[in-house]
Specification:
Elements: E1 3-10, E2 26-33, H1 45-62, H2 70-87, H3 94-105, H4 112-133, H5 139-150, H6 189-201, H7 207-221, H8 228-242, H9 253-259, H10 261-273, H11 276-314, H12 323-330, E3 336-337, H13 339-346, H14 350-362, E4 366-368, E5 378-380, H15 383-392
Antiparallel strand pairs: 1-2, 3-5, 4-5
Helix pairs in contact: 1-11, 2-4, 2-8, 2-9, 4-5, 4-8, 5-8, 6-7, 7-8, 7-11, 9-11, 10-11, 11-12, 11-15, 12-14, 13-14
């Protein structure tokens, strides 16, 4: 066991309602993990092999990165964020989210579920930006990520607030005595978070091993009343970006984890039980699978862009500096797009953007989502289908022209 169990007594609070069978004191055992600092780790050859393959897969995903492919980086980041939400049971799909965001951009209303997933995207973006720009990741940075994540959640009062009470996973809603897992009592949380931040700064381990340990330790600490899973998965990419492994494209590890949630939870349980090597192997296998999927989908989206270009060339055949070409470049990052967003993303004038949209509609690259003259949006043909496949974790089918 990588830690110790501490026995506690749960006292019923008569101010809070509970069914009669829960209105009595009970005992439970909370798990306090060992610190990461000073941890001795010897990986067997089989795990080292999986680790090497995963690092090569992520490096291969990032080797083709260039400024011109920046929209594809945004695409992968959004897909990873949505999948991370899906692990927690938030069933907001790629298509639903893209169309809802477009409505929001034009003043329309969106559901609370969509706003919460958007918060996850924002938190992941914040994590990536801070990972690349800050010298260290302290507890305050983790709190900032959590605050961004939870601001639009149904319980925004917990956003950015480290817990001061006992939380638990499974069991019932009234006490932790029958829970599946009880994280450390609140007095242990602050020192464990400080130790976690020390581990994020330590570069003595391979990046993927470091990310696996940081994530599993964070999930074990469970320092917030809600949003721990999504915050912990954001920290994976903080580590990988800081260590220079995923310099541009994030491997959508959460896509793989969401596909088999029970296996993911079992892996975290094995970590707490002391099978750290087994968890690292599981994590690296998910990273390798995610990177392979991402690379295949980047190739598919790149081919789709070529398909759009050929359609535009055969149809309107605009000048080489026309706004339509610039719009094609940004469509993967904005599969449902409005004229104001297109103008901001391309840096082109409003009139030029509207002319480009007409050209792209005529050649079948864009389809209008409504006939209204106001608050219009357009969908890029083929992108959402590809993203839905990536979200589902299935290999893409390369289309022809």
């Amino acid at each position: 066991m990588r830690g110790k169990l501490v026995k506690r007594t749960w006292e019923w609070n008569p101010v809070l309602y509970a069914p009669p069978r829960y209105r009595r004191a009970c005992t439970y055992e909370a798990f306090v993990p060992d610190p990461l600092k000073g941890m001795e780790l010897q990986l067997p050859g089989s795990v080292v092999g999986v680790l090497s393959e995963a690092e090569q897969a992520i490096a291969g995903l990032n080797v083709a990165a260039s400024p011109s492919l920046a929209p594809l980086a945004r695409l992968l980041l959004r897909t990873e964020s949505i999948a991370s939400s899906k692990v927690e049971g938030m069933q907001v799909g790629i298509r639903q989210l893209a169309r809802a965001e477009s409505r929001a951009e034009t003043g329309g209303k969106v559901s609370a579920a969509v706003l919460e997933v958007v918060g996850n995207i924002d938190a992941m973006q914040l994590a990536m930006e801070e990972a690349a720009s800050t010298g260290s990741v302290g507890v305050s940075r983790i709190i900032d990520i959590h605050r961004t994540l939870m601001t639009n959640a149904p319980n925004p009062q917990v956003a950015g607030v480290v817990r001061t009470g006992q939380n638990w996973i499974g069991g019932n809603n009234y006490n932790p005595c029958s829970a599946d897992f009880v994280p450390p009592p609140p007095e242990y949380v602050a020192p464990l978070l400080e130790d976690l931040c020390t581990a994020i700064a330590d570069e003595s381990l391979p990046p993927l091993v470091q990310a696996a340990l940081v994530h599993a330790q964070f999930e074990t600490i469970h320092p917030f009343d809600d949003g721990n899973g999504r915050t912990g998965r954001a920290l994976i990419h903080v580590v990988l970006r800081r260590r220079g492994l995923s310099t541009a494209y994030v491997p959508p590890i959460s896509v793989v984890l969401a596909a088999d949630r029970n296996r993911y939870i079992d892996g975290l349980t094995r970590y707490r039980e002391g099978n750290v090597e087994g968890w690292i192997e599981e994590f690296c296998a998910a990273a390798a699978t995610g990177a392979g999927l991402a690379k295949a989908y980047l190739a598919a989206v790149t081919e789709l862009i070529g398909h759009w270009r050929r359609r535009l060339s055969r149809g309107a055949d605009p000048r080489s500096d026309a706004a339509a070409w610039a719009m094609i470049d940004v469509l993967p990052a904005h599969p449902v797009i409005t004229a104001p967003v297109a103008a901001a993303a391309t840096g082109r004038a409003k009139a030029a953007v509207h002319h480009a949209i007409r050209q792209l509609v005529e050649c079948g690259v864009l389809i209008p989502l409504s006939e209204s003259k106001r608050n219009r949006s357009w969908e890029a043909v083929g992108v959402l289908e590809l993203l839905e496949g990536l979200e589902a974790g299935v290999p893409p089918r390369i289309r022809g022209s």
